[in-house]
Amino acid sequence: MNHRPIRHAGGSGALLLRRRLALEGPCRGGRLRIAANAPVQLYVDGLRVGGAPGGALAERPLWQPLVLEGVLEAGSHEMLAVVGSPPGGQAPWFACRGRLKGVAGGPAQPVESDLRWQAFPLAGGDGFSALDDPPAEEDWEGVESAPGIEVRGEAPRADERLAAARGFAVFEETLPGGGLSFTPASVGPGGCKCVHRDQLLATTGRTSVLTGNHRAIAFVLDFGRIVTGYPCLRLREGRGGVVEIGAAAAWGRIDHGLRYVCASGRQEWYGLTPVRCRYLVVRLSGFTEEVELERLALSERFVAAEGQAALAVGPGHDLAWETGPPSLQGSRLDAYVTDPPPAACDWWGTRALLLADAVRTGHLAAGRATLLGRAPDPHRPLARDRPFPVCLEAYHDYSGDDDTLGQLLPTAVEAALRGPDAVAGAASLAAAAAAAGAAERLCRRAGEDTDAGRCREAADSARTGLERLWRPEPGLYAEGAQGGFSQSANALILAADAAPEDRSGHMAAALRGPGVAPVAGLTEAVLLAEGLWRSGHGARALEVIDTWWLRIVGREGSTWRDKRGPEEDIAAPGPDYLLGRFLLGISPTEPGFARRRVEPALSLADGARGRLPTAAGDLSVEWRTGEVEGVRRTTVQLQACGAGQTELVLERGGRPRPTLSVDGEVVWRNEKLYPNASVRETAAGPEAVNLLFRGAGAWEVILE
């Protein structure tokens, strides 16, 4: 394959690219990878193959997989790529590679971006007129290689499906012109015609519309949830009519606008840029010729994940657990949707989504794509990029992906060494300590001891800065020299282990004190619960879950973002990671679960069961605690799939001299060890007893 990124020699606007394919024999389907620095749509013989968000979702180029379907007969065919306008006045570029599959042993057809493609500059991306004449043969120009472009990462394959609106929030006959409105002025029934309007709510159907020159039909489609995808139209006739669409995530504010001018005949059109919305605000005007709308919908874009975790604790937590899959699916695209470029990535939100996905599905490809595509730019240092090493560490913990770690470790070290400014408050210093600590651990794993030492110094410096902000009387770290306290900063200090151990109890109690600013959303709530759990305050952490998730679980909406409403941050993670990591207690102690720890929260629940997918295979744990013949007994069922070592950690629960049995045989009694063929190591401390199992297996452990 000799693919190369290509571009048009002049201009920085949108671009139409063409490649003629001469097939020696019929081909059935194929696989392609495309990349661009702007949103792109790909067509073969006028039919859309698929699209990719390109630079709208990741600043660094990623390959986007596409699957081609159907049969192309021998002969001439045409492939078209529509590339949008990149930000910052850049010249758009495009790359592709792949092949069409030959039928019945026939030759495969390679498809790649090279100098045989042709280019035609376009005026605008999401404003499109089908009345425009297609470019004449002499209007097509040559392309050139785009220098300095290397596509190294790959996004997971994204699927699309049509999302049907739940209903009309508004439907009015109004006047044409002016901006789109959620409350268009009604002029009463007049000359407009709209037959079978309910068909606009279906993904297939037919609605006939006629407006004339002086009237318009305006309506708002409500999907009932946040959907991410491409607005799409399919219609017949309606020459000269205009379809205006505004996409809105919240009522009253249009985030993205599109405009389509109709031609004659059957037409199909997809918006170039994927949008994130709950509402589509639509106005139809200028239809002096009747138009038949066969589709006005959103082609929802998502990445499927195969692994399925399970959890059963109690009605409230179980209901919260059920909200996890749709919440993750709404955020798991080619990369996680937090803040799109050019804004700095929300690394705390991304980390929360990544960990929730790792716990629920074992899916890590979207996390890898986000890390590769949104890694901080060393030439554009931003304070919000500082947590990048913490997110990279979370990914490596659960994946064991040393190749990606090797690519991104220098970026993580640079972010960790950037350091806070001289007057940084507790939140900034806590983030700096967390980032430097994560970068140090990653460097140790990679054998980069010199960089690890530098990161250690940066972490110590941040902790020294934090000491100046410690206030013994309230038992918290102040936001700055002028005072002020927040839950989010102090929770992050606990999670980053940036405070002396003897302070955690005071801090956990003081977080609920008067004058302490509460966390502002679900991402910060994850950090608050994690900080409390890591510092040994699991009961308080469960209260955070009850307050932030169980309190709203019964609200309308299928995702946490929908249940919280427009005030919520974009990430809007659920408690999935917290329940899997800290309640079930399943976590990797070596990257990729080569060694894993199962430490069920026996003191917080008398019974629970769960199964989590991991890079080494599924892990399951179930326990129940009760009185048996006057003795308090905890029975634990543990099952591990795949190679590796599994460490089971059981709280003594106040038992001074516990008895521990594995598969009916005593292994620990009166602080004395007994050999057992299943147990490789046994150790006991004042708070817990540890058992180490090797390889796959299922074991019943009884503690009494």
Work out the number of β strands.
Answer: 40
**Distance between the terminal alpha carbons, to the nearest Å?**
65 Å
Low-confidence stretches: none
* Rg calc: 29 Å
- Strand percent estimate: 25-35%
Helicity range: 10-25%
Q: Which descriptor suits the 3D outline?
A: globular
Can you describe this structure?
The protein has 704 residues and is an alpha+beta fold. The chain contains 14 helices and 40 strands. The strands form six sheets. Strands 1, 2, 3, 4, 5, 6, 7, 8, 9, 10, 12 and 13 form a twelve-stranded mixed β-sheet that branches. Strands 11, 14, 15, 16, 17, 18, 19, 20, 21, 22 and 23 form an eleven-stranded mixed β-sheet that branches. Strand 29 (586-588) and strand 30 form a beta hairpin. It is globular. 48% of the residues are buried.
Keywords:
single chain; 704 residues; alpha+beta; twelve-stranded mixed β-sheet; eleven-stranded mixed β-sheet; 14 helices; globular
Topology:
Layout: E1 6-8, E2 15-23, E3 27-36, E4 40-44, E5 47-52, E6 62-72, E7 75-83, E8 93-102, E9 109-112, E10 118-121, E11 127-129, E12 141-145, E13 153-154, E14 159-163, E15 167-174, E16 193-195, E17 207-210, E18 216-237, E19 242-248, E20 256-261, E21 266-270, E22 275-285, E23 291-302, E24 310-312, H1 315-322, H2 324-331, H3 347-360, H4 365-374, H5 388-399, H6 402-418, H7 426-446, H8 449-467, E25 470-471, E26 476-477, E27 485-486, H9 487-495, H10 504-510, E28 516-517, H11 522-534, H12 538-550, H13 560-564, H14 576-583, E29 586-588, E30 595-598, E31 607-612, E32 619-628, E33 631-640, E34 645-651, E35 660-662, E36 665-669, E37 672-673, E38 679-684, E39 688-694, E40 697-703
Parallel strand pairs: 6-13, 11-20, 27-28, 30-34
Antiparallel strand pairs: 1-8, 1-12, 2-7, 2-10, 3-6, 3-8, 4-5, 4-7, 8-9, 10-12, 14-23, 15-18, 16-17, 17-23, 18-21, 18-22, 18-23, 19-20, 19-22, 24-31, 25-26, 29-30, 31-32, 32-33, 33-40, 34-39, 35-36, 35-40, 36-37, 38-39
Helix pairs in contact: 2-3, 3-5, 3-14, 5-6, 5-7, 6-7, 7-8, 7-9, 9-11, 11-12
